[in-house]
Design goal:
By secondary structure, the chain is an alpha/beta fold. The chain folds into 2 domains: 140 residues, Nucleotidyltransferase, domain 5 (2-Layer Sandwich); 188 residues, Nucleotidyltransferase, domain 5 (2-Layer Sandwich), CATH 3.30.420.40. It has an 8-stranded mixed β-sheet, sandwiched between helices. The chain has a 5-stranded mixed β-sheet with strand order 11-10-9-12-13, with helices on both faces. β9 and β10 form a beta hairpin. The chain is globular. 46% of the residues are buried. The structure holds adenosine monophosphate (AMP). Adenosine monophosphate (AMP) binds next to α10 and α12.
């Protein structure tokens, strides 16, 4: 079944058409800088890249341009459903859902929890329905996979009313990636997904790690927002919340501005002063830049500590799984993390790690050591698969 996957952000719209029977991506593209004079649409089809300027385009014009490209290439008529990435599903959504008025109201209810993303995700859903009124639309939530976390993992130790009246709790994100990657890992390990214990480290610009047991997320490093947890490209990850009250008056800025800096000027970028990009930092560190080296060391140390913590809810580790741009591509970062985790029995196999586990069914650790794997994430495919399943169910129910 061919599915259009849409990820509508505040100033961008990412799309792909995926054939779910074999996971083949027929076309993928990105409308970016939406709302600005530099707005543009780029896409890749049949190995060729194309770009179109869309000066001043808003979301509507951008999505219309995407649909025109699909129509011109003869791809629109074969699409059977639209899968939307939605960032925050709060406690409303424990799984992907066919969009109807109730689902839209639920996504709207979660806007206070995801103020930057949910409004844009809703815009994508509304435009998708207007452009393809005959197609079912499915919402796939970043948070849904983590709704299996037990209360001891998701509660903050704060006044009870903060949770009860204001839904302040840990939600976790990257759920679509963690679900896809943990499934793939089980397959590589030759174990049933429902009897597998893995820790997935999704290391991209945003980073989070999740303990997955028997197909369920038991704990994860991100919290109420994607700011909690690991050190990331520009996000600080965990800090003492009292830091905000300490630094705001000293810098003469509001707490909101401090939180903005924790999101946008911290992490690898903040420590290094060089870049938020791991590849750039590794090169700078190799060239003798001490702060770049320090940024990588803090990143690795904090990640290793978090991974060790996630062993607690699992009880055993069938595999630690690296994914995301850093996890899939940086043998150096993986080796550094595994070295710090020697206490858990990890031992890198240098040759396997160097070719990203390709020659050993994803394995990058030595025989006899605790297993670590490299698995490429594919959130778009997971969204397409969920959408196809729900569309097929809807069709069967209608018959
Ligand atoms: P993502 O958000 O998943 O696209 O990941 C982006 C991150 O992956 C950036 O920090 C990149 O520098 C990093 N990355 C991609 N390729 C490599 C590589 N070969 N070595 C180190 N980091 C990489």
């Amino acid at each position: 079944m061919q599915i259009l996957v849409l990820n509508c952000g505040s100033s961008s719209a990412k799309f792909a058409v995926i054939e779910t029977s074999d996971g083949h991506e027929l076309i993928s593209g990105l409308a970016q800088r939406i709302g600005s004079p530099q707005a543009s649409l780029g896409w890749k089809w049949d190995g060729k890249k194309q770009e179109l300027a869309l000066p001043g385009a808003d979301h509507k014009t951008s999505l219309e341009a995407i649909v025109k490209v699909l129509r011109d290439l003869g791809l629109a008529a074969t699409i059977r459903g639209i899968g939307h990435r939605v960032v925050h599903g709060g406690e409303h959504f424990t799984a992907s859902a066919v969009v109807d008025a109730k689902v839209i109201a639920g996504i709207r209810d979660c806007i206070p929890l995801g103020p930057l993303h949910n409004p844009a995700n809703l815009t994508g859903i509304e435009l998708g329905a207007a452009l393809f009124p005959e197609l079912a639309q499915v919402a796939v939530f970043d948070t849904a996979f983590h709704q299996t976390m037990p209360s001891r993992a998701y509660l903050y130790a704060v006044p009870w009313a903060w949770y009860q009246d204001h839904h302040a709790r840990r939600y976790g994100f990257h759920g679509t990636s963690h679900r896809y990657v943990s499934r793939q890992a089980a397959e590589l390990l030759g174990r049933p997904y429902e009897a597998c214990a893995t820790i997935v480290a999704h290391l991209g610009n945003g980073c989070s790690a999740t303990a997955v047991k028997d197909g369920k997320s038991l704990d994860t490093t991100m919290g109420l927002t994607p700011l909690e947890g690991l050190v990331m490209g520009t996000r600080s990850g965990d800090v003492d919340p009292a830091l905000i009250g300490y630094i705001a008056p000293r810098l003469g800025i509001t707490p909101d501005k401090v939180i903005d800096a924790l999101n946008k000027q911290s992490g690898l970028h903040g420590i290094s002063g060089v870049s938020n990009d791991m590849r750039t930092l590794l090169e700078a560190a190799a060239g003798g830049n001490d702060r770049a080296k320090l940024a990588v060391e803090v990143f690795v140390y904090r990640l290793a500590k978090a991974i060790a913590g996630l062993a607690v809810p699992l009880g055993r580790i069938d595999a630690l799984v690296f994914t995301g741009g850093i996890g899939e591509n940086s043998a150096q970062v993986r080796a550094m993390v595994l070295e710090q985790l020697a206490v858990l029995g990890f031992r890198t196999d240098e040759a396997r790690n160097k070719d990203h586990g390709r020659s050993a069914k994803g394995r990058i650790t030595a025989d006899g050591a605790t297993t670590a794997l490299v698995v490429a994430t594919n959130e778009e495919l997971m969204i397409a698969l969920d959408t196809a399943t729900l569309v097929a169910g809807k069709q069967a129910a209608a018959r």
